[in-house]
Design a protein that fits this description.
This protein has helices at residues 11-23, 42-47, 67-75, 87-119, 130-148, 161-170, 184-197, and strands at residues 2-6, 27-31, 55-57, 63-65. It contains seven helices and four strands. It has a four-stranded mixed sheet, covered by helices on one side. The N and C termini lie far apart (38 Å).
């Protein structure tokens, strides 16, 4: 059975739980207490040298780290990743990858960070970084809004792991001061993805161990 090493409040880990659920793949969740240093232990660093969650351990003991790499591995040969068996398929697959790279460069480090700081009382200690992060968040949301104003899903006509990845932190943008009422195309997309996923993938709140003190 697959083992998902995860800090459950992380939306990077949430993404993986979603895809495993959609694919009906059984797995074991192994919580990682990142604020107690568990992601920096020698054993965990064997799974992910960067010391971050998630890490997925396969049945044979091999491990994959980085959330979007894990999504790609799990989605191969499924409806959630286009096959590269034709020029059109190669293009569709490249579009999925485009939005996976976008999410890890423009969304997760910005909206993800601002949300974490906001919900755990860390905005003041990071005050010097906040204006730049907020400007970057507006640019990211603007790019999503422009794309979704002319397409139901990010990579084209089909729901893919590109949508799962960007929805993870994107649908929580209001938590750090970006209400989606200001981004009507994103709001419609969030409703669309929420309808596909249903209620089986709740967002886990940060616990007291994550709060600044």
């Amino acid at each position: 059975m697959l083992t998902l090493h995860e800090y459950t409040p992380s939306q990077n880990c949430w993404k993986i739980r979603v895809l495993l659920g959609l694919l009906g793949i059984p797995y074991r969740s192994q919580p990682v207490a990142i604020f107690s240093g568990e992601s920096r232990t020698p054993d965990f660093l064997q799974l992910n040298p960067a010391g971050s969650t998630p890490a997925l351990v396969l049945d044979d003991g091999r491990a994959i780290a980085e959330s979007n790499a894990i999504l790609c591995y799990l989605a191969e040969d499924t409806r959630y990743m286009p096959p590269a068996t034709s020029p059109d398929g190669r293009f569709a697959r490249a579009k999925v990858m485009q939005w996976l790279f976008f999410e890890q460069y423009y969304v997760e480090p910005v909206i993800g960070s601002l949300r974490f700081w906001t919900l755990t009382g860390r905005l003041e200690v990071n005050a010097a970084l906040v204006p730049g992060k907020r400007d970057a968040a507006m640019r990211a949301l603007g790019a999503l809004e422009r794309t979704l104003s002319r397409s139901q899903f990010l990579a084209g006509n089909d729901f893919t792991i590109a949508d799962i990845a960007n929805y993870a932190y994107g649908h929580l943008a209001a938590d750090c001061g970006f209400p989606l009422a200001g981004f009507p195309s994103i709001a419609r997309w969030v409703d669309r993805i929420g309808g596909i996923l249903g209620s089986g993938y709740p967002v886990v709140p940060y616990g007291p161990e994550a709060r600044a003190g």
